[in-house]
Amino acid sequence: MLTGLAPLVSSRTRVLILGSFPGVASLAAQQYYGHPQNHFWKILQAIWPSSPISSGGDSYQNRSKWLLDRQLGVWDVYASCEREGSLDSRIRQPVVNDFAAMLVQCPALEAIAHNGGESFKHARHTALLGLPVYKLPSTSPANASWSFERKLAAWREVFEKHGMV
Fold first, then answer.
1. How far apart are CA 78 and CA 52, in angstroms?
2. Which residues pair with 72 in a beta bridge?
């Protein structure tokens, strides 16, 4: 059984981005979106181009601080699961995270953004929080049917709705 990562959030987090479960590269590095081909960090940088992620160095610690400074948080829908490789289609025996705990940890939380279809399968759970819930195109390199520009536009729209851009 694989165990996911702790949530990357703060009391100022306004939008919580939920993935499905970290891939092999992310688990090995103990970093969200650690696969170099994943568009997650590149999309966020394109939304906030005037604040370079790498201005404090390109370490995960600096990227995490940058994310939290934008009032964003990251977590996954699954706390644990069995899976060979990194594909969501290979997830077996998943255990869902306790989303209600986020309302205590993140009192400023105003929306949930699901990064991809596997995460969005659990929108019924996150909708119980009484917040807007969005389905975003996956930033995974496996999601080749969406161009970078199309993914970027969809992601930007959510942050614009919440006055963050």
1. 30
2. 15
- The ranges assigned to domains in the chain are 2-161
- CB-CB contact of 95 with 78 (8 Å): yes
Tens-digit pLDDT profile for the chain (165 aa)? 999 999 999 999 999 999 999 999 999 999 999 988 999 999 999 999 988 887 666 799 999 999 999 999 999 999 999 999 998 999 999 999 999 999 999 999 999 999 999 999 999 999 999 999 999 999 998 898 999 999 999 999 999 999 999
What is the pTM (predicted TM-score) of this model? 0.95
The edge-to-edge listing of strands for the beta sheet with 15-19 is 72-76, 15-19, 111-115, 133-136
In contact, 134 and 114? CB cutoff 8 Å: yes
**2-161 homologous superfamily:** Uracil-DNA glycosylase-like domain (3.40.470.10)
